[in-house]
Amino acid sequence: MNVNGRHFRTIWLKESDPKIVQIINQQALPHRFEILDLSTVEDIRRAIKDMYVRGAGLIGAAAAYGMYLAACEAGDGTFDRDLLAAAGILKNTRPTASNLAWAVDAMLSALSGREGIRAEKVEAARRGADAIADGDAEFCRNIGAHGCGIIEALAEKKGGKAVNILTHCNAGWLAFVDYGTALSPVYAAFDRGIPVHVWVDETRPRNQGASLTAWELAGHGVPHDLIPDNAGGHLMQRGLVDMVITGADRVTRRGDAANKIGTYLKAAAAKETGVPFYVALPSSTFDFTMEDGIREIPIEERDPEEVRYISGKTLSGAIETVLICPETTPARNWGFDVTPARYITGFITDRGIAEPSEAGIMKLYPEAAV
Length: 370
Ligand code: MRU
Hints:
The structure is a single chain. This protein has 370 residues and is an alpha/beta fold. The chain folds into two domains: 2-135, Four Helix Bundle (Hemerythrin (Met), subunit A) (Up-down Bundle); 146-368, Rossmann fold (3-Layer(aba) Sandwich). The chain contains twelve helices and 18 strands. Helix 6 (184-191) links the parallel strand 6 and strand 7 (196-201). Helix 2 (56-73) runs antiparallel to helix 5, helix 3 runs antiparallel to helix 4 (98-111) and helix 4 runs antiparallel to helix 5. Residues 54-56, 169-171, 175, 181, 208, 246-249, 259-260, 335 line the site of 5-S-methyl-1-O-phosphono-5-thio-D-ribulose (MRU).
């Protein structure tokens, strides 16, 4: 996507030194656009854990580049063992999104037990990480093409009036390598002249909607309004939401979908008010080994300080972090919740639209049928 007229992906290798991975620092947005250099597995681990990079697809791609750096760091006689150790470290950073373990395992199976000199293995690791990043961008571009048709049909029904789309968290290009998932159909529709307007949930506690989705949409020129997390149900009751599109971090074979905390409440309100609720995801986010998402999907619990404090720009222009509760108030901070398949209208995938059931998903993914 373009930032001030220049095309950026969210992660890439530095042109002048391909042993350095460069990322857009998402902690600095929306107030500062900053690029960070990562040159060790530890740098990548910290970037994922502390959310300098975030979003299902991007943490997968970051972990793949982490495995490439692990190959650069690995000892001659200990290559496979060093890679396995790095895989464990990277997989341990964030538990919920499927893409992370999927990318690490893909790198491991491409590299482990590989014959040849070290330089060839490092080159293979680099090609493997590039392929995962390119694949992620391609998945997302296709999601845009498939989802755009749904928005277009709604626009026709509304006689050309803007289609109001509610989204939660950030599942735009910042959360992937490029294009995004939930926002990819929005960008595709906007670029084709279909009138769209986005309701952006602020997404407490880390405010990915307010700081990232709003920034992305403004950069692309898409009309939008930031709303408090609790406003969605009210807007749906008033007929002000034509559809909801969210991303997903892990979707089970029967269609239960983990996404940023608060998604389930939006889905329940959408079901109650008859608003179509779509989940957009790349193939790499399905976890066909799981069935019952509520019981089986691991839910990340993060530092309670993320709930107790909030960061932003003061009137004087300084970036500051302030406490929003009494000094001694305890807090809990679950990062994700699971929306049962029965609340979902359809999955917008890179292969097309899937019905929210095991049979519907298996029609698009016959290789996962048992
Ligand atoms: O904790 P985050 O910001 O990494 O959360 C993941 C997400 O970006 C969302 O849940 C998103 O909607 C899923 S798609 C990237």
